[in-house]
Amino acid sequence: MSAGPSNEPHNETAGIIYAAAAYGIWGVFPLYWELLSNVPPLELSVHRMVWCAFFAAGVTLARGRFSALWRIVGTRKLVLALALSSVLIATNWTIYIYSVASAQLVEASLGYYINPLLSIALGVFALGEKLSRLRLLAIVLAAAAVTFKAFAIGHFPWIAIGLALSFGFYGYMRKLTPVGALDGLAIETCLLLPLTLGAVLFWTLSGTGTFPAPDFRTNALLVLAGPMTAIPLALFAAGARRVRLSTLGFLQYLSPSLTLLVATLILGERFTWSDAATFGCVWLALILVAVDGRLTAREPV
Questions:
Q1: Who contacts 185 (Cβ-Cβ below 8 Å, separation ≥6)?
Q2: What average pLDDT does range 224-253 have in this prediction?
Q3: Count of beta carbons in the 10 Å neighbourhood of residue 275
Q4: Which of 233, 213, 232 is nearest to 223 (CA)?
Q5: Which whole-number Å values give the CA distances from 274 to 154, 155, 186, in the listed order?
Q6: How confident is the model over 280-290, as pLDDT tens digits?
Q7: Residue 4 pLDDT exceeds 60
Q8: Per-residue three-class SS string for 103-148
Q9: Where are the domains of the chain?
Q10: Nearest to 42, CA basis, from 96, 100, 94, 104
């Protein structure tokens, strides 16, 4: 008996809602990590993985999914795929938290502008998805915006490239792995648990870590990083299973747009003329995609 795919229906409307909610939460996430600015980025990322694993495992037990997860773990192909996706998402989390700690959220937002282009490319070349002329024009506009932004930064955007590649390929792996959203998240984070929990215990016993902190606030925020991470990631995985990868790619523009607003209006990073030009191209591309979606919906089946 195969571990098999989840029984989630292919419903693109629901998928768009799930994915948009995930990207909206991710867009304002820097505000949460700013509350933990006293914790080193690597340690904060490791805590995020640990508490996410505990939270996902608890939800799995509450849902009575333990036997289903055991069947998935018994399928070597699925375990290998989830092991790879766990490494990709852990890499993404670490780079992103570093970008918040080092006040480089503008470059991080660039990464999430590049990411949809990678998702679209994967959808076309790996999955055989087709693009209409309007979507092709939107891709050209988005590519022009991202290229212009990269030149405006004035250096190789390793944060942007790292975020784009890690999350783009994570989305691709989760799209192709026939495992439910919460089930996959629980396995991904638990596969990393021996390393992440070991690191937390080492830092605690050696006295070099932040946790347990002398103040309740820091401890609570570290622990709550688990559900705060798990919920949008589960929403994303649920959305990714229901929509075309190219559609998912364009929805991802919501997150960097919100992140840029948070960075400039709340955290005090500069909003330059190049940011304004980038936003203009991106939102025009989104308008073209929306128009294309309406036209496609009206076509006879």
A1: 52, 56, 230, 233, 234, 237
A2: 80
A3: 19
A4: 213
A5: 12, 15, 40
A6: 887 788 788 77
A7: no
A8: CCHHHHHHHHHHHHHHHHHHHHHCCCCCCCHHHHHHHHHHHHHHHH
A9: 12-298
A10: 94
